[in-house]
Amino acid sequence: MKKSLGKRVLKWTLWSLLALVVLILVGVTIVIHFIFTPAKLTPLVEKTAKEYLNAEVHFGNIELTFFSTFPDFGIQLDDASVISGTFRDSTANSEPTMQDSLMNIKSCLLTINPIVYLTKNRIVVKDFVLEQPEIYAYVDSAGVPNWDILRIAADTTTVDTTMADTTTFDSGIRLRNVRIRNGRLVFDDRNTRLYTRLTGINLGVDGYLGKRRSRLKLDFSTENVLFWQEGQLLVNRLAFGIETGMKINRDSLLYTLEKAVVDVNGIRFGAGGTLRGDTVNHTLLVNLKYGIHIPTLKTLLDLVPDTILHKTENVEVRGDVLCQGEIKGIYGQQNIPLLTSEFRIKDGFIAYPGMPSKIDTLNVDLFALIDLQKEQESYVNLRNFCMKGGGIDIDMAGDAERLLTAPTLKAEVKALVNFEELTKIFPLADGITCRGTLNTSLKTDVLVEDVRNADYGKLRIGGWCQMKDVNIFIPKDSIVMNVKSAGLVFAANRKNTKSVQGTDLLNGVVGYSGLDIHVRNKVRLLMDTTYLALRTSPLKDTSVVASMGANLHLGRMVFIVRDTLLVGLKQANAKASLLPSKRNKKVPQINAELQVDSLRLRAMGNRLNFAKAEVQVEAVRSKRNTKIWLPTGYVDFTGLRAYTPYFPVRMRMPGTRLRFDRNEIQLDSAVLHLGRSDLRLTGNVTNLAKSFFKKEELKAQLLVTSDRIDCNQLMRAMERGTAYMEKVKAGFRDTISTEVDDMDEVPVVSDTTVLEGSNCLFVVPPGIDFTFQTDIKKVLFGKLQMDSIHGEVVMRNQCIQLSDLELRSSAANMSTTALYRATDTTKAYAGFALQMHDIRIDSLVGLIPSLDTLFPMLRSFEGLVDFHIAADSWLDSAMNIDLPTLRAAAYLDGRDLVLMDGETFAEISKMLMFKNKKRNMIDSISVDLMVKDGTIEIFPFLVEIDRYKAAVGGQHNIDMTFKYHISILKSPLPFRAGVDISGNLDKMKFRITKAKYKDLFIPSRKAKVDSTQLNLRQRMRTILKEGKG
């Protein structure tokens, strides 16, 4: 009985627990999915945040989680942003600036364990993960930060006292998975003029936060650190990371780093120390020490990559190594800690087993001090570097003084190195060979400001350096370097009583011969004898730029970058001088003259050859930006030949001078041959700098004269160039194949006199605004040859426009205005207005084949006509007219036209009882028509033949169906009649009707045609101006 009772109690207990769990789950489901839904929770949190924060807080979505994070409760936030209100006027509707954008977060997940809190009064944060946070921490010049956004209520004391009395939480917070992934931080302090940017931030925090004491484990890394101070870039491309334990004492605000490991660009060293907060002054007292633990010199040798030096355990090494530093001082408003670093090697000795030579002496003593607050001068002092033994004797000492104010580099180097002896001291990786000698003795005292100001004549460099028969081969990286001989000699600081400063300035010679460099079978450089001679004139005024001259000789050179670039040079000589500018003696000016003998350049499929070239340049620094030079000068060259697959014709310029400055190139009768065409160019090309550096339009105003232009070849070249451009976009990669090296043998478009084969659109290049005034003697277009062409050609907004172009051909005299626009190879817009006088009908149809569609009856006539037309249409990829988009208006007037079909005329003349049955001639014809929406509207026109006068009008459709009416106005018949003709050419229907046209002169028809032509011209002008079709 008792056993049965126990079972029932257990059963009811389990059922009760199950029911309780179910009720809890149901309650949680209702709360999450019906009460605190994202649509209700998101605006509630935003409203609450606005009450406590002086900021605009926005969330894309806020969602409570339980089942996805079971058994933990969580909250998921997406697309969060915080816009600070610290610097914004709350009374004005001002737009937020960059300084106001405090934080953006892609997503955030926070989960806690409620059971631990309920049972043990402890908070356990299972997850706190921030994905891609971006923080912009800004401090203005008064020291006010944009993150100071917490609103302080007037009754803060009362609220805090009440909460202190009612709260029961008196335990700690356990952190298990606090993570920041791929973050970005910008710290912009205008108060101390510091700017820091960290990208690729990753942070991991685990540990325990107690009421008075805490212990944390931190893992922080960033892919790149950028650091500016007072407009100077001090740090960039620095990868930084730290792993450390941290103790926190809240009573004393003491933070202690334990066993910290710091990683800087792959170099790891240890760190430790304390940070103490000062809540009164809002500062932080920093006392950190760092260093690399190097027990022996062998540890340092092990850092050398295996690809250079074999590692061995039997190496005999002696010497003490020290590498340490401190960061000490106060960090806060107007305060930055002091950084010191020290590196020493004392009494070093290296001897590898089995090697015939050894390093007998190795001593290094380096100390650095950096004070970003500039209370004392920052410097790096290389007190001593000494290495001796086995054909190596190097002594070096130097200082980098006043690093943050006026950097000055002072150094003294004496070295004798036998590269072959290196292989007898160190067990280099397999295959590495070194030969040759280096002997040098140099002394420098260089002010970095002189280098920045290009005042090179004031550089104090003295001594000499010589390399002879140097050969270095590294097989694993496929690097080969051979130098037959190289040397430099500098002289400065020698006494000279004629100069104001009492010493000579920089003079010297640098040169080498027999240079041969290979890198991974991708890059090769071959150079013959090359030298540079420098000389500086004595100064009469030490405040001005020192006058300096140089002579440069480049011997035969070949430079190859695998199969993409080849540069060949026979020889070049240059003279240059650096001197004070005329407008300001403290600003440098460069004068240079360069003479090149036989230059050859090949880049991918492009080629450029010079027989001879001469360049003269004068350059002065810009007043606004010292990094910008303003050049002027000219280029003289003879025998220029070029080729590019983007315009595959041979280009030649026999002899030309181009004058230039930073913004303009001036041409004076520059002759250019493009295949069978020739051009003589006079004018200027402007906006050079802005077009190259700011992607603005390149502009030109040019007078073009020519003896002959072959449009067939040039249009085919544009087509081929456009097709090649599409291949490149699709991934095609050209090479500099040496199979065809002669420019005369490269494949070009055919020199045919007729444009044959299928057509395709050519794309007008973007970013150009060219205007050409033309004077051309002869132009070949299709089978038509034209001469005496005068007018304006404009290339703008990817359009080509011909404006009032006058030309003459064997067929007729013509004037035209036309426009062509194509931004890709799928479609193009074309419009034109053309007037031709006394042109043969067969020539007219040959020039404009589409007239056969507009005037089907033209096939039956021959003779001279006057023809005016204005039309526009879209073209497909094969340059065919898209007929539904065609709009046109035209006149055609002719007299004494011959009906070409004699048999047909004989039958008609017999049937209609012509007086002259042998004269198959139409006395006159005048046709006006319009094309719109795929329909040709032919206005009534008069036809006179023999004793008959008739008016013809109607509609002709693009599908070749038609509907015409013919009114007989004069005939031998005693009455007037009309004929309706409909159908198509294969099946026509005739119907006798009344004459519709009694008065041919309809006033509205001319006005409609003239209006249409005017509208088409206006449309072409709009497309050219705005670039919209």
From TrEMBL:
<dbReference type="GO" id="GO:0005840">
    <property type="term" value="C:ribosome"/>
</dbReference>
<dbReference type="GO" id="GO:0003735">
    <property type="term" value="F:structural constituent of ribosome"/>
</dbReference>
<dbReference type="InterPro" id="IPR052894">
    <property type="entry name" value="AsmA-related"/>
</dbReference>
<dbReference type="GO" id="GO:0006412">
    <property type="term" value="P:translation"/>
</dbReference>
<keyword id="KW-0812">Transmembrane</keyword>
<feature type="transmembrane region" description="Helical">
    <location>
        <begin position="12"/>
        <end position="36"/>
    </location>
</feature>
<protein>
    <submittedName>
        <fullName>AsmA family protein</fullName>
    </submittedName>
</protein>
<dbReference type="InterPro" id="IPR007844">
    <property type="entry name" value="AsmA"/>
</dbReference>
<dbReference type="GO" id="GO:0005886">
    <property type="term" value="C:plasma membrane"/>
</dbReference>
<keyword id="KW-0472">Membrane</keyword>
<dbReference type="GO" id="GO:0090313">
    <property type="term" value="P:regulation of protein targeting to membrane"/>
</dbReference>
<dbReference type="Pfam" id="PF05170">
    <property type="entry name" value="AsmA"/>
</dbReference>
<feature type="domain" description="AsmA">
    <location>
        <begin position="7"/>
        <end position="211"/>
    </location>
</feature>
<keyword id="KW-1133">Transmembrane helix</keyword>
<dbReference type="InterPro" id="IPR018130">
    <property type="entry name" value="Ribosomal_uS2_CS"/>
</dbReference>
